[in-house]
Specification:
- With 552 residues, the chain is of the alpha+beta class.
- The protein folds into four domains: 190 residues; 101 residues, no CATH class; 80 residues; 149 residues, Histidine kinase-like ATPase, C-terminal domain (Heat Shock Protein 90, 2-Layer Sandwich), CATH 3.30.565.
- Helices cover 65% and strands 8% of the residues.
- The protein contains 17 helices and seven strands.
- It is elongated.
């Protein structure tokens, strides 16, 4: 049915009027013929002594064919007309009276039209591959759509003396609901997109084995066994759901429903030994289909939904990786292009400040020094951008060797202590003499420690104390902590701390920075097999720590 609907939609978009007319005619005609045949078979079975609506597949076929066709008024009108004729002809062929033909044709056409209207209204594109979509479809279509038709037919049956109202209503509604619940998911899953993963030779062979095995097992369980062995079909249903998802699970459910109910109506299997009338046996088997077979469809829908989420996540990851690679290339190009002109500006500024370009006054000297200082900040940013792009691209090379962490920390402390912004800072160094040697890249480690100590001075210098703490938390790890007594980091901002170019609102202050130092430091530490983290509370300062593999 999916291929048929796709063909009709493709033809519907063509400019050739003959092709358009053909598309509006072929699908309704084929579905009407199928419905007519199913009606004749079902009524014929009932004449042989079985309930007429034990499993009413005609409703499912009619609804699926309508939904798979193009959404045009001309198609809807033609389809409804053909379905009415199909039901009427089926009733005529089995010899029903004129009142019966009128009542049953009107009731069946009503439930087909109502099912399509409800599905289009509440589930415009039936998403049977998601649990929510499947449940919505099952509640709207099989449960609600047959109710008005069941009431109409039961009222007519009772009025004309053809049977009991309650029995007619329950038989009609139960059988038609089951027919739509079993047939519709199978028909709606037969689309090109759903079947595409299974159109390879190995998958086709697997589907044939699973569905063929299900059919063979159903014949044994429902026709040949003399004991209640319906539970043996459940593993095959689950296997169909796991391996073939919604298309395979719906096909397996359809097989189980058709075989089990036909076995009851033919007087075969265990049900033949039960001392109850045939309608009661049929109702028991219908309950089996509802509670034992149909629940496998939500399992398949959940697996299908998981597959869709996994594909979406993979696509998103690939898109993010492509964007990250593009950003890294841009950063590398920008930083490379910045370095050369900035170096020229620094050279000219230093010559100007030194009076080598001619006599200058004190104001000009101050401006030249400001120019050089600003240019050096831009140069440092360019190198940081290059490091960030290389780190994200995985092209940063590190040479791991034993490094004296205490010596590195002391060298960094002395170099930062002489800067103007470190004036008045009291330094506390704890853990000296602990022999904390790390396996690290000495150059990259100095870069990381310099960033942490500089940040402690810049952002936490208001507390007046910066503490450097060396320790060895375990035999194979060494640790450096850089703590300050500053204002700390707001809880709402802590999750954003290691995001590149995010200064957490500090860009509005006089504290200089670009917001990429911590992100770069974290990546460099991870490349050396270590970890970087922090502890902070508002008003209590911040403590950043680095853990690296021990050298011994």
């Amino acid at each position: 049915m999916g291929a048929l609907g796709a063909t009709a939609q493709a033809a519907d978009g063509a400019s050739n009027p003959r092709r358009v007319a053909l598309s509006l005619f072929v699908t309704p005609l084929i579905c009407a013929l199928m419905v007519c045949v199913l009606v004749v078979i079902a009524i014929g079975v009932s004449r042989a002594g079985g309930p007429i609506a034990a499993l009413w597949p005609a409703l499912g076929v009619a609804v699926v064919g309508w939904l798979q066709g193009p959404r045009r008024k001309e198609f809807d009108a033609a389809y409804f007309l053909f379905i009415v004729l199909a039901y009427a002809i089926g009733n005529v062929l089995v010899g029903n009276t004129v009142p019966q033909i009128a009542v049953f044709t009107a009731s069946n056409a009503l439930e087909v039209g109502l099912a399509v209207v409800l599905i289009r209204r509440f589930t415009p594109t039936p998403q049977l591959s998601s649990l929510k979509g499947l449940i919505r479809f099952m509640l709207i279509a099989p449960v609600v759509a047959p109710l008005p038709a069941a009431l109409l037919s039961a009222a007519a049956v009772s009025t004309f003396g053809w049977g009991d109202f309650l029995t007619s209503f329950s038989t009609w509604w139960f059988g038609h609901a089951l027919g739509l619940a079993v047939v519709a998911p199978f028909g709606l899953s037969l689309t090109r997109a759903k079947l595409a993963p299974y159109l390879t030779l190995p998958r086709i062979a697997e589907a044939v084995l699973i569905l063929g095995g299900t059919l063979a097992l159903c014949i044994v369980v429902f026709f040949l066994a003399n004991k209640m062995l319906g539970f043996m079909v459940t593993p095959m249903l689950l296997l169909a759901a796991v391996r073939l998802r919604v298309p395979g699970a719906s096909a397996a459910v359809l097989i189980v429903s058709c075989v089990s109910i036909y076995a009851v109506m033919s007087g075969s299997g265990t049900m033949a030994m039960m001392h109850v009338d045939l309608p009661a046996k049929v109702r028991l088997m219908q309950l089996y289909c509802i509670f034992a077979a149909l629940p496998v469809l939500p399992v398949a829908a959940l697996l299908d939904e998981r597959d869709g989420l996994a594909l979406a996540a993979k696509a998103g990851q690939e898109k993010a990786e492509a964007a990250s690679a593009g950003k890294s290339r841009l950063l590398a190009n920008v930083s490379h292009e910045i370095k050369s002109p900035v170096a020229g500006i620094i050279g000219i500024g230093e010559l100007w400040a030194g009076g080598k370009l001619g006599p200058i006054n004190s104001t000009q000297e101050e401006m030249a020094e400001m120019l050089v200082r600003t240019a050096r900040q831009v140069e440092a940013l360019a190198y940081d951008l290059l490091d960030v792009s290389n780190a994200e691209a995985g092209t940063v090379s590190v040479k791991l060797q034993p490094v004296d962490l205490e010596a590195v920390t002391e060298d960094v402390r002395r170099s930062v202590a002489v800067k103007p912004e470190a004036a008045g800072i009291r330094w506390v160094v704890e853990g000296r003499g602990e022999q904390v040697a790390a396996m690290a890249d000495s150059v990259r480690l100095v870069q990381v420690v310099t960033n942490l100590v500089t940040n402690a001075v810049k952002y936490g210098g208001s507390g007046g104390v910066v503490t450097l703490r060396l320790s060895r938390p375990s035999v194979d790890r060494v640790r450096l902590e850089v703590a300050d007594k500053g204002p700390g980091i707001a809880l709402a901002k802590q999750a954003e701390l290691f995001e590149p170019f995010n200064r957490l609102g500090m860009e509005k202050t006089s504290v200089e920075g670009h917001g990429i130092g911590l992100a770069l430091a974290k990546r460099l530490v991870e490349l050396q097999g270590g970890a970087l983290g922090f502890m902070s509370a508002p008003g209590e300062g911040a403590c950043f720590w680095v853990e690296l593999p021990a050298a011994n």
